[in-house]
User: Which sequence fits this backbone?
């Protein structure tokens, strides 16, 4: 009887060991072929805005900000292909847990594999940001090695010496060498929104080592020097060298990147069409940012926002970025005029917006309406006029008319945190 | 009757144990194969799959050949000596701590506290995490708070205990251009702009 009892205990302990499940079992290894498949997967319709928010998606419940989205996409692909996935352990690299990886058994009570994956991504999302992603888990590629699946990370100085970091995932490279990006933000994560997409993004931040184009490291390359990454993966500091030497301004650098990656050439006129569409999209996106703040104010009876809420609903950096986009549009318009390559309608829009020539208000409004409050719209010319005169308010406690520069008073008396 | 039941149980248990042993043997064999597979990169296959395989030999990179490596190694050693003492660095330099991980044994249980910054569109958000290790030294996230330390984080931070591991990443300099990474106060790696005026290039060193 005693021997049966001993065996029973042994059997139970063996069964409980079996019950400890990895997030998924990796049966494959990363290779150049899988990197190519990763790029193809990023380009495919499988990677889409609703992939984490659609209730029928196996990954429903993943909720990410910018850097987390990059980790999430890499983890999902690794999961679907039974590949290993590992990141530098955010909580500390004390042995034996140097990495946080798919073999962890900590989620074995969460449920089936896909739910364990969601749990892993959720934990990663809670514990890392663009800094970890850039410094520890990725490496810089040569410009020619930039592919769908490559990341673009940046650090920029904001007001009062603050720094803002962000990550874009390159979903595809457009024929002219601009980028189709998919990403998220902290504000988007807060509202559990779909992933964000910009189909024609030109980056504005000059690479500054380690910030710039990055690719994921294979698990075995984590913690290793750049020289340990196989040359076939294209590790290179080329982008940083160029950005600090011969191509040390944003326009020249990204023009070079586009030239290297493009499969077709583009006239100044065609570029004008693209940039106009991008400016339109960002201008219309501001309606949502502002309205989110106004909605919150409604809920709180207009109470002054504390530091945290100011972080969530103010727009100084985004307003500055929008202004830069308009300035780029102005420059591209000027180039199209000088090369005589633009669509006459677009040239006329530009003439009206930047030189006050012509009377195309109605057509411009129809081409890109900014319906910023009920019963009130403006065209891009009017928006540029207000933006260039710094009439727009980024303070989330200001009234809608002030936020959009329709009037400049009364300004809120609530504290501007930065 | 009793004896036959006993035999049946014994047989089932024996089958379970044999099955488990087979799984263990199979898994160790699989691990061996994987180790071999991941440690070898077939450059012939790689070159065929990746038309950009020769990119690392572009002129820009050729600059970073042998002589540069020597310079880099020397520079890494100089910087290691300069930044070896974390506490001194903190006293002299303008420091922005980017993350801090502390592993602390309290009443026989190891807790991990983590501080870092989450990204946001307009700012960066100080975030505090608390993990509790299980008997296999595997950490489980038990508390996450933004902007302020959570109650459990504070409790563990204040508790008497033994600190068994620390890891800290910091940026130094006016433009936060140099990143230093310490484990148990020993410099592990460094990324950023060299402080010497004659060599203002980016440098990355691992120790």
Assistant:
């Amino acid at each position: 009887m005693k021997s049966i009892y001993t065996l029973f205990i042994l059997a139970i302990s063996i069964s409980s060991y079996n019950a400890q499940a990895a997030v998924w079992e990796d049966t494959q290894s990363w290779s150049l072929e899988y990197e190519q498949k990763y790029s193809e997967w990023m380009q495919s319709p499988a990677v889409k805005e609703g992939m984490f928010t659609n209730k029928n998606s196996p990954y429903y419940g993943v909720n990410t900000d910018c850097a987390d989205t990059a980790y999430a996409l890499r983890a999902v692909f690794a999961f679907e292909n039974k590949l290993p996935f590992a990141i530098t352990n955010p909580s500390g690299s004390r042995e034996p847990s140097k990495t946080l990886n798919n073999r962890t058994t900590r989620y074995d009570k969460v449920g089936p594999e896909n739910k364990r994956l969601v749990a892993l991504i959720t934990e990663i999302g809670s514990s890392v940001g663009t800094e970890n992603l850039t410094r520890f888990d990725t490496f810089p590629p040569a410009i020619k090695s930039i592919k769908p699946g490559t990341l673009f990370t940046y650090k920029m100085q904001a007001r009062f010496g603050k720094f803002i970091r962000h990550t874009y995932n390159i979903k595809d490279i457009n024929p002219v060498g601009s980028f189709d990006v998919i990403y998220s933000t902290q504000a988007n994560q807060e509202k559990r929104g779909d992933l964000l997409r910009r189909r024609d993004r030109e980056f504005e931040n000059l690479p500054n080592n380690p910030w710039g184009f990055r690719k994921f490291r294979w698990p075995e390359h984590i913690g290793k020097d750049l020289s340990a990454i196989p040359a076939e993966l294209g590790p290179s500091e080329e982008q940083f060298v160029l950005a600090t030497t011969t191509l040390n301004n944003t326009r020249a650098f990204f023009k070079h990147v586009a030239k290297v990656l493009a499969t077709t050439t583009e006239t100044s006129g065609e570029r004008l069409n693209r940039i106009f569409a991008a400016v339109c999209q960002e201008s219309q996106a501001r309606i949502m940012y502002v309205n989110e703040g106004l909605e919150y104010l409604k809920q709180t009876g207009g109470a002054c926002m504390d530091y945290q809420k100011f972080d969530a609903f103010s727009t100084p950096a985004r307003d500055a970025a929008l202004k830069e986009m308009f300035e780029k549009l102005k420059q591209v318009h000027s180039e199209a005029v000088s090369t005589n390559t633009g669509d006459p309608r677009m040239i006329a829009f530009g003439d009206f917006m930047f030189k006050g020539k012509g009377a195309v208000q109605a057509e411009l409004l129809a081409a890109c309406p900014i319906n910023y409050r009920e019963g009130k719209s403006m065209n891009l010319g009017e928006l540029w006029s207000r933006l260039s005169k710094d009439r727009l308010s980024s303070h989330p406690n200001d009234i809608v008319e002030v936020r959009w520069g329709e009037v400049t008073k009364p300004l809120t008396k609530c504290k501007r945190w930065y | 009757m009793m004896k036959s039941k006993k035999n049946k149980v014994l047989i089932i248990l024996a089958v379970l144990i044999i099955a488990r042993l087979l799984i263990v043997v199979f898994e160790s064999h699989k691990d061996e194969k994987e180790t071999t597979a991941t440690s070898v990169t077939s450059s012939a296959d790689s070159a065929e799959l990746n038309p950009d395989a020769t990119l690392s030999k572009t002129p820009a990179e050729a600059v970073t050949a042998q002589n540069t490596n020597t310079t880099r190694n020397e520079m890494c050693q100089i910087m290691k000596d300069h930044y070896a003492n974390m506490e001194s660095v903190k006293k002299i330099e303008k420091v922005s701590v980017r993350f801090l991980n502390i592993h602390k044994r309290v009443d026989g249980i190891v807790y991990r506290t983590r501080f870092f910054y989450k990204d946001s569109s307009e700012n960066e958000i100080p975030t505090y995490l608390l993990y509790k290790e299980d008997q296999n030294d595997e950490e489980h996230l038990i508390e996450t708070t933004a902007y302020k330390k959570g109650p459990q984080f504070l409790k563990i931070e204040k508790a008497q205990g033994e600190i068994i591991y620390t890891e800290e990443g910091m940026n130094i300099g006016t433009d936060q251009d140099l990143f230093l990474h310490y484990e148990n106060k020993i410099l592990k790696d460094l990324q950023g702009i060299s402080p010497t005026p004659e060599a203002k290039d980016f440098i990355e060193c691992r120790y």
Remarks:
- Chain B touches chain A through 74 residues (CB under 8 Å).
- Residues 27-66 of chain B have pLDDT under 50 and may be disordered.
